[in-house]
């Protein structure tokens, strides 16, 4: 989008916002009455895009929705490990936002929110324009904490030592590093302590890189250096896959806390163990809620994650501001996953539509999670869970007896994983 | 937003009225059904309209869905994942979900 068009869009959006604010100031919004309210959604990922679509859909398009997202297209983190492993292309994990606009009437603004003014109920964009809201949805995903990694303070260092934990340019760049690596090299991935986005993701990545090495660079190795005491998700399944398919390729070392990265020497530095030199380093720094949530004072749990009221995902500290997805301090055993963000988004969308229409908020929402991981190019394992809202404890509790793991990897679940991706992308963006 | 055909909407309204007496401020049956069914959309598509390769649920009969979910739940129908998920929903929730999908156009 060129600047002129962008400016027009902003001006138009700001105009709509003012109109909406005026309409909302009018008293007497009742059940069934047209609610000319406006919701602003920050972030077009699994959480934000889903919220935007479902608020439009469930309000019969009565509530206006502005989605603020800087990226041109949605790029999925789930399945991105297959791009890194070389069996999928970026195109396979990229989905347009066009249907959100054309089919659902979401107004998309390609920008970042730089400031949330919860008292005045407005956000400021990078362009300087402001947008008023009746309800704000903050779904910015994760950001990285580099404080504890002195070697990664500069932009240049971070361009060389990649996380590839937000799908996009880093996904492609890490793939290039692996392609450029001579056979016989080591790929070392450092995993932070829980909680972090997508618990099984690093182990799936180890599998996909090892599968690539097995196909094309058979003398190369994958070293998994985990700050946790053990594999954090699907442990038995991953370890069985490593033993069966990647013996002599993948080596897993638990309890390795990364304290620095020697960028010039391509070495990982640990609290207790000797430094490790590798051809390609992949460092997942500790994570926290997306910057805008932290800057806005929403990250009340340790300064890292945002606490919410789980009935409607409203922030515990900011009225009319809802936070969801990887940014929140989750309910017990609720994972930081795209699937869960999509589920939270629908609970939040239902609550916002109800509130803006004078209807009661659902008092017993339900969320479920499904997470597929590829262990070979075609074989997949899953973990699933169901989470029911408990009014007494005001949180979600896993439903006893429900959920579980695959007994073993299978190609049938590989097909299910592909179908899952197509389906959830269509649910959020179709 | 797909609108329900009038006759089906009326049936659902009647069903809601026939439901046990509840707080006037409780979420109505149709809205509750819609929200519960949305938990299935990640794999079965929005309102059960699954893209190619997925298992569509839109327009399936209520009885079909209720029966299938009971079989998954009890292990009478083998599955990779549905048995585990079905155990997380009460029979009452499954009934609502089935009503919602049955009311969607195929």
Alpha carbon gap, first and last residue of chain B: 14 Å
What's the average pLDDT of chain A? Answer: 93
CATH architecture of chain B: Orthogonal Bundle
Strand content of chain A: 15-25%
Q: How many strands appear in the DSSP assignment of chain B?
A: 0
Number of helices of chain B: 6
Q: Strand count, sense and closure of the main sheet of chain A?
A: 5 strands, parallel
**Highest CATH level, the class of the largest domain in chain A:** Alpha Beta
Into which percent range does the helicity of residues of chain B fall?
40-55%
Cα-based radius of gyration of chain A, to the nearest Å = 22 Å
Largest sheet of chain B: none
**Low-pLDDT windows of residues of chain A:** 1-35
CATH topology of chain B: Cytochrome Bc1 Complex, Chain D, domain 2
Across the major sheet of chain A, the strand order is: 5-2-1-9-21
Order of helices and strands of chain B: HHHHHH
Question: What do you see in this structure?
Answer:
- The complex is a heterodimer of chains A (430) and B (106).
- Chain A is α/β, with parallel strands linked by helices and 430 residues long.
- Chain A has 2 domains: 3-143 and 288-361, 3-Layer(bba) Sandwich (FAD/NAD(P)-binding domain); 146-285, FAD/NAD(P)-binding domain (3-Layer(bba) Sandwich), CATH 3.50.50.60.
- Chain A has 11 helices and 25 strands.
- Chain A has helices at 3-25, 46-58, 80-85, 98-102, 155-160, 169-180, 201-216, 235-245, 291-295, 338-356, 411-429; strands at 38-42, 64-68, 74-75, 94-95, 107-109, 113-117, 122-125, 130-132, 135-138, 142-144, 186-191, 221-226, 250-253, 258-262, 267-270, 276-277, 280-283, 287-289, 308-309, 314-315, 321-323, 366-374, 380-390, 395-398, 404-405.
- Chain A has a 5-stranded parallel β-sheet, sandwiched between helices. Chain A has a 4-stranded parallel β-sheet with strand order 13-12-11-17, with helices on one face.
- In chain A, helix 2 (46-58) packs parallel to helix 10 and helix 7 packs parallel to helix 8.
- Residues 1-35 of chain A have low confidence and may be disordered.
- Chain B is globular.
- Chain B has helices spanning 6-18, 29-38, 41-44, 62-74, 82-86, 91-102.
- Chain B has one domain (6-18, 28-102): Cytochrome Bc1 Complex, Chain D, domain 2.
- Chain B has 6 helices and no strands.
- In chain B, helix 2 (29-38) packs across helix 6 (91-102) and helix 4 runs antiparallel to helix 6 (91-102).
- Chain B is an all-alpha fold.
- The longest helix of chain B is centred in the first third of the chain and has 13 residues, at 6-18.
- The chains are: A alpha/beta (430), B mainly alpha (106).
- The interface between A and B is large, with 47 and 33 residues.
């Amino acid at each position: 989008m060129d600047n002129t068009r962008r400016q027009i869009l902003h001006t138009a959006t700001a105009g709509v916002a003012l109109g909406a604010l005026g309409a909302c100031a009018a008293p007497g919004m009742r059940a069934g009455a047209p609610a000319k309210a406006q919701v602003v959604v920050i972030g077009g990922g699994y959480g934000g895009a889903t919220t935007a679509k479902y608020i439009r859909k469930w309000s019969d398009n009565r509530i206006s929705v502005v989605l603020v997202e800087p990226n041109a297209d949605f790029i999925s983190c789930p399945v991105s490990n297959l791009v890194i492993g070389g069996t999928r292309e970026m195109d396979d994990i990229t989905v347009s936002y066009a249907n959100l606009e054309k089919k659902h009437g979401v107004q998309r603004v390609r920008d970042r929110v730089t400031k949330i003014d919860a008292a005045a109920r407005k956000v400021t964009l990078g362009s300087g324009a402001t947008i008023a809201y009746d309800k704000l949805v903050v779904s910015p995903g994760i950001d990285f904490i580099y404080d504890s990694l002195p070697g990664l303070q500069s932009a240049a260092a971070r361009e060389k030592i990649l996380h590839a934990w937000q799908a996009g340019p880093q996904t492609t760049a890490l793939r290039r590093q692996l392609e450029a690596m001579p056979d016989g090299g080591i790929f070392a991935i450092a995993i932070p302590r829980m909680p972090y986005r997508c618990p099984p993701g690093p182990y799936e990545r180890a599998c996909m890189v090892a599968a690539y090495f097995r196909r094309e660079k058979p003398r190369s190795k994958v070293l998994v250096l985990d700050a946790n005491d053990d594999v954090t998700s699907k442990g038995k399944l991953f370890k069985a896959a490593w033993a069966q398919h990647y013996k002599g390729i993948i080596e897993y070392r638990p309890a390795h806390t990364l304290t620095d990265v020697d960028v010039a020497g391509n070495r990982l530095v640990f609290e207790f163990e000797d430094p490790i030199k590798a051809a390609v380093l992949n460092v997942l720094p500790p994570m926290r809620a997306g910057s805008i949530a932290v800057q806005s004072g929403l990250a009340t749990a340790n300064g890292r994650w945002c606490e919410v009221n789980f009935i409607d995902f409203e922030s515990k500290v900011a009225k009319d501001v809802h936070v969801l997805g990887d940014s929140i301090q989750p309910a017990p055993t609720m994972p930081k996953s795209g699937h869960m963000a999509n589920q939270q988004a629908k609970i939040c969308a239902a609550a916002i539509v109800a509130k803006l229409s004078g209807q009661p908020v659902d008092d017993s929402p339900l969320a479920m999670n499904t997470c597929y991981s590829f262990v070979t190019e075609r074989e997949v394992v899953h973990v699933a869970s169901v989470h029911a809202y408990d009014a007494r404890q005001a949180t979600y509790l896993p439903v006893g007896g429900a959920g579980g793991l695959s007994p073993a990897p299978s190609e049938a679940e590989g097909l299910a994983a592909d179908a899952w991706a197509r389906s959830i992308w269509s649910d959020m963006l179709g | 937003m797909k609108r329900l055909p009038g006759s089906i909407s009326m049936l659902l309204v009647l069903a809601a009225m026939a439901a046990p007496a509840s707080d006037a401020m409780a979420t109505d049956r149709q809205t509750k059904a819609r929200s519960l069914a949305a938990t299935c959309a990640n794999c079965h598509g929005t309102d059960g309209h699954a893209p190619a390769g997925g298992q569509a649920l839109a327009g399936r009969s209520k009885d079909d869905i209720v029966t299938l979910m009971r079989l998954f739940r009890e292990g009478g129908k083998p599955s990779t994942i549905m048995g585990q998920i079905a155990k997380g929903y009460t029979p009452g929730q499954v009934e609502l979900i089935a009503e919602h999908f049955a009311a969607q156009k195929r």
